[in-house]
Amino acid sequence: MMWIRNGGASAPAAAPSLLRSMNQRFILDWLYQNGPATRPQISRAVGLSQPTVFATLANLEDVGLVRTRGQSEESNGRPALIYEVDPGAGTIAAVDVGRDWLRVMVSDLVGTILARAEVRNTARSSKSLVGMVKEAIASASGEAGIEYTAITHTIIASPGVYQEQDSRVIYAAQLPEWQRPRLYEELRDTLGMPVTIENDVNLAALGEHGEGAGRGVNPFVYLHIGTGIGIGIVIDGKVYTGATGAAGEIGFLPFAGPEPLTDTVDREHGILEAAFAADSVVEYARRLGLEGATTAVKVFELARKGVAPAKKAVQRQTEILAALLTSISAFLDPELIVVGGGIGQNLDLLGVGLADRLNQLSPLRPRIVASVLGVDVAVRGAVTRGVAVAREAIFAERMARIPGA
Q1: Which comes out higher in pLDDT, residue 269 or 163?
Q2: CA gap 276, 24 in Å, rounded
């Protein structure tokens, strides 16, 4: 370790190899964020000398992380090479695993979506579901015109919480056998590539913050209401996951809206989820005498047509939603709550009478809007997260090729 004396005190100085690595990562991240630029432009922007920038770009180009794309005239009239990141240095697959659908996006390292696939989930076991995930990725990569083997990393947006110590997902009762141990190994070995598993609602919050209604808002909450329910909490641009990763698993909140609590507790799904998620909408509508409604989507369609039992079922959802929004506001005081999911997308219907009910319950009133990313919100967030994970891994792997790095 070298030491530099500063004002009489000694301080450790980074080794040359560490400084090179820091410069390489710094310049690469700058190009990802700001786009193509010449060496002089990069030097001025990052505050490094042109020889340092020149050497750093040469290393990054040698390992295929950056490339040149023509020339530009500088202020002195001299032509200068333009450098940009090579988006094809890696490719990621993002997969939103839902009870009814698998949604897949293939992206390059810049975040450009190369292809998208949507497949109905017909799996009845974890093994068959893992096989469907692989087939969906293969289909999307084919549509993108790339080989399956060109995918360098897959990120899975899954219900529940991934536990690394047991290699399993918990709190994902909607997916048959998905909670069994060693799920990660099965995914990794079947797909034949590195895999990351993260909570779907947290990724949806990340997607909404980056590209949707939550852009630039701090703090904000993404509320998902579909086959399951949950919230993603974004504070200072980062998703808050809690001590064990279970922050936002609000399905286990001990209240059920307009009906009184009973002695029967659904510990697998949670009291609130059992009362508020998609299946409960259908069940309640049937109890009111509604016929021909086998899905929550159908209940909302009939409510729009003025069918009385369907409208009453939706009104029940509104009352539960008002209580839930009040609870979120009291605990987190967010600037914005974005509502999404199969049921949450119907905020136009759920919002009828919502303001009056919220006024009755509390003076706390955050702004409430519908998701602008719709059904793609979780997979879009998975792309964002997957790109970040893949960049880290590919940078480490490529820079290890440089002698003395």
Answers
A1: 163
A2: 50
Q: What is the CA radius of gyration of the chain?
A: 25
Angle at 290 between CA 287 and CA 295, to 5 degrees: 95
| Phi–psi pair at 44, nearest 5 degrees | -65, -40
| d(C-alpha 268, C-alpha 252), whole Å | 9
Strand partners, 68: 83
pLDDT tens figures, 320-355: 999 999 999 999 999 999 999 988 889 889 888 898
The CA-atom distances, in angstroms, between 343 and each of 58, 60, 223, 347 are 52, 47, 11, 8
| Full set of structural domains in the chain with CATH | 13-85 (1.10.10.10), 90-203+378-399 (3.30.420.40), 214-372 (3.30.420.40)
d(CA 400, CA 253): 48
Q: Could you tell me where the DSSP H helices lie in 120-160?
A: 126-144
